[in-house]
């Protein structure tokens, strides 16, 4: 639910950044003796305002940006000499100060607030690795869950976003990390070769999900199954019933939740540290969400292997498809170790290789070695064989499909691609009709005797998860690993504040440069909607985090405004530099046409970034 107080905080914060920028122009103009007609927060027609002296202070209809209207700023074409209190009457240096006043004030805001924030303490997510993307650069480099990232390319980092930004803007061929392994006090250097993430539009090393709280504290939404079972925010997860202790707790949660059956777990209470075991029944309701059939490709194809004694002994190869151990199919992440532990020692691992099936002997491993080996096997979705992973509680399972069935046809289309499958299901959901699936159901033997079945299933609208997907059907989730950065005294706060300001100046410039040379996709640009959403998210984290973001926004606004684009401050500064060099002002005609081009550019940019915001919000 949206907190109106947080909305107000975010709005006031954004307004503060704009106010500081326009105040910079206003103060510089007054200091240079230029009369100011209007000081406006927002654009467009005036909502309300007051007049003091020669200046009207107003709030405008469109809550984006703001402006200062100065005497003589726009040429009137009369050819008369400017009055002494008009802008054109001032020297090039004075006009340069007036047009750069907003930029200087925005930078000044960051330079003043950053040290104050770092001295008092700012909460951040820990710059640590959660679960690296299997097969990705970080995974190949051997980085594991809980590894702290101290610096990227020689630059100290404060949080996970800072890490991702340094990687995205760094060398395209090499990223040098300074890391601290779990349980260690020393650091070491790791060199990773980044990859360009086509979906995100920038370089990445596949750090995966954020690191979770090492004390396994959880967050719980009110009036949910977890809340009603007695869980509360800050309780510490100890174990999930029925899963091996050697499995990481976040993996235990993911595996236990994926079949959406009742969940039994033990926590230590935040209040007194006493253990509490609860059983949670998931809230599986039909509702206004997106209709789903509940079929996905099986996650079982070996995409990459890290060397290790157990992995080498098992003898898997890249492109092998894992089928089953004993009577347990391997279809999702977590199925391999659980099937391994449940099987008899002499039961082989059945795989698909080179068009046939093969049974391979399994080495005898203790639990810790087994889970280490599983981490060394990167699995990918099986798009080739059309083996199905069937989600619990959704239309396909209710109609009788089982995990491991191989899809032969859907609505009469034989051997469809997964793109075609998703399109057929989407169309059927829109038309509110059933889907006919023809599947092959095999035994677990190496040479299966298939059954051919025809099953009719209906896409079922699933209610949106609690709190816009933040918690899932159980109503709770593990907390991200957080800490508070606090400088060692006021001098250190000033040092860190100056370094951070300069760092974000460089990052803003490198981002713009990366977009110009197509190294970073322009779809990453955010507009007013994105700024509002991010501001609200930071407001939820407390005033210190909100003010930190506003400092970043202020630096960003300063750099954007100094770009040599007509109608931006930088465009005016460029004309002043030309005037200084040639000894006379740029002609009114050139200024007029350039301003028109600038307006068209800015309007087009506004439309584009707003489209980006909407596309991100709706997953387009």
Automatic annotation (TrEMBL):
Key words of the record: Hydrolase, Membrane, Metalloprotease, Protease, Transmembrane, Transmembrane helix, Zinc
Enzyme type, top EC level: hydrolase
Membrane topology: Multi-pass membrane protein
Gene3D superfamilies: 2.30.42.10
GO biological process, one term: proteolysis
One Pfam assignment: PDZ_6
Native source species: Engelhardtia mirabilis
Cellular localisation: Membrane
Alphabetical list of PANTHER family matching this protein: MEMBRANE METALLOPROTEASE ARASP2, CHLOROPLASTIC-RELATED, REGULATOR OF SIGMA-E PROTEASE RSEP
Protein name according to UniProt: Regulator of sigma-E protease RseP
Cofactor(s) listed in the protein's UniProt record: Zn(2+)
GO molecular function ontology, one term from the record: metalloendopeptidase activity
Main localization category: membrane
